[in-house]
Amino acid sequence: MTWLSDAAVAHLRDVADWPLFSGDRYEILAPLARGGMGTVYRARDRELDRAVAIKVLSPIASNAESLERMRQETRIHARLEHPGVVPIYDVGQLEDGRLFYVMKLVRGRRLDEHVADRTLAERLRLFVRICDPVAFAHAAGIVHRDLKPENVMVGEFGEVLVMDWGIAVGHAGTGGYDQTTGAIAGTREYMAPEQARGEAVDARADVFSLGAILDFLVAAGSRDGTAAPPARALRAIIDKARAGDADARYANVMAMADDVNRYLEGERVSANPETLVDRLTRFARKHRAAIAIVVAYLILRVLLAVIDVRRLFGP
């Protein structure tokens, strides 16, 4: 018996999955990413002469439940008209019955690839921008359920996009359970405890995931994987967002983003009950330039005074 190589198996799978459109509008160029439900391809829209991305349901997932899940995904996308969410251009069905939808092709890097050489302040400002589309989704009654660095893209011009809304549900959805398979959906290390238990979730499950993303961003400060422990106030923000009890977390995403903004501005954050040392440290960090000028001035005056004393009394 001759065993096929991994490359040969992958090639056969690509051939089997390759979508065939009834018209000649879309030209499939290459696969970009593959998931449990389907494959995303780089393609060209001949009619509008532009590059696009097309997500096509996998042949092995083409059953009634998977079709409904993908329809739900497209409906969720359609509701999220926000600059931080990839827009959908078209939706349809292949001749073999598989669903597809066409969306903007995002050029850029994943968040986990983008932040390695960024300062802490730059990483925190990126985080605040991630919060915007998530808060917008919550206002529309939608919980993402799979927020993680790999699902955030930073575009060529600095735009921040929250990707992969494939397991998102409404606030009244069936919690962490995937409605098709009954399996718990999401990524364990970024998943809120109630989601991991298969309980109903609300926006605070995404707050937990954002806290895990913030923890990742704070620790991503050096090339060799080592980073100084975060300031107490920043650690307090992360800990509050990642509280095991949903009631102990931030009530909403923007409350968390506001605390991160206050940290960046050198203001007191709501998650951190300050001691006198904390207040003095925060004051020194916020006004470090002015303090440096005053200290330099005082040192200069002391030196001038010493010179005057030497002139008066001699060597």
Outline the fold blueprint.
Layout: H1 6-17, E1 26-34, E2 38-45, E3 50-57, H2 64-79, E4 88-93, E5 99-104, E6 108-110, H3 111-114, H4 120-139, E7 142-143, E8 152-155, E9 160-162, E10 169-170, H5 193-196, H6 203-219, H7 232-241, H8 253-264, H9 276-286, H10 288-313
Antiparallel strand pairs: 1-2, 2-3, 3-5, 4-5, 6-8, 7-10, 8-9
Helix pairs in contact: 4-6, 4-8, 6-7, 7-8
Question: What can you see in these coordinates?
Answer:
This protein is an alpha+beta fold and 315 residues long. The chain has 3 domains: 7-104, Phosphorylase Kinase, domain 1, CATH 3.30.200; 108-273, Orthogonal Bundle (Transferase(Phosphotransferase), domain 1); 283-315. The chain is built from 10 helices and 10 strands. The protein has helices spanning 6-17, 64-79, 111-114, 120-139, 193-196, 203-219, 232-241, 253-264, 276-286, 288-313, and strands spanning 26-34, 38-45, 50-57, 88-93, 99-104, 108-110, 142-143, 152-155, 160-162, 169-170. A hairpin with a 4-residue loop joins strand 8 (152-155) and strand 9. Helix 4 (120-139) packs antiparallel against helix 6 (203-219) and helix 7 (232-241) packs antiparallel against helix 8 (253-264). The longest helix has 26 residues, at 288-313. The chain is elongated.
